[in-house]
């Protein structure tokens, strides 16, 4: 294990250097996400004002503000563009050089993205958590921060990232056959965004749909971590959803291994 970590540690450094080198691109990416949060706030504010200002589907307006910010934080922490990168490397032929290296194809992407995440979380995670708790304290008149809930949130986010990474790299292997993944990847991101509760909390859906969507892996990406932080899940319910996350992370890890073995034998590089 120590030997493997030593092999892949440089990829973590490469991920951090990538963000530092292209920091202007990173800044504009974050600004775009902030604008989405601002737009979401005004939309939900209009919904609550028209509804009389009371709670809707278990969410007060104050909780919805917290939900929007936490969803932005969770989405940023688990983000993975590995499917896009795999598609681009297949398209331009760069994948041939990566496959020649005596290291795991999946692990190189994973450790590089971990480096990317370390940089991102250091810059935005702490300020956003402080902002969330300041908003909650201003509404309730007391500090609601819980160390235990925060640690459970981090655990849930970590598992959500692994789900998202292995889901995306499994999806990216489709490019080995289709040769181009941009259009399909855009559609996939839209579907995942809706099913993970990024656009609308799943509790706002009809009861039957909500139960079905909560069983899917997409709810484990963003909705579960946010619900844990907000205290909506506790006791056996919390344990259940954490175990569900662990199950989906293991399932997509196995799937990525199987798809790699299947599609790597059918790869035809057309560029490079």
| Oligomer status | single chain
Question: Which consecutive residue ranges, at least 5 long each, have pLDDT under 50?
Answer: none
Helical stretch tally: 12
Overall pLDDT confidence: 83
Envelope shape: globular
Summarize the model shown.
The chain is mainly α and 272 residues long. It is built from twelve helices and no strands.
Task: Describe what this molecule looks like in 3D.
The protein is mostly helical. It is 76% helix and 0% strand. The protein is built from 12 helices and no strands. It has helices spanning 2-21, 23-50, 61-78, 82-92, 95-100, 105-140, 147-172, 175-178, 182-195, 207-215, 223-229, 235-263. Helix 1 (2-21) packs across helix 2. The protein is globular, with a radius of gyration of 20 Å. The model has no long low-confidence stretch (mean pLDDT 83).
Write the layout of secondary structure elements.
Elements: H1 2-21, H2 23-50, H3 61-78, H4 82-92, H5 95-100, H6 105-140, H7 147-172, H8 175-178, H9 182-195, H10 207-215, H11 223-229, H12 235-263
Descriptors:
272 residues, mainly alpha, 12 helices
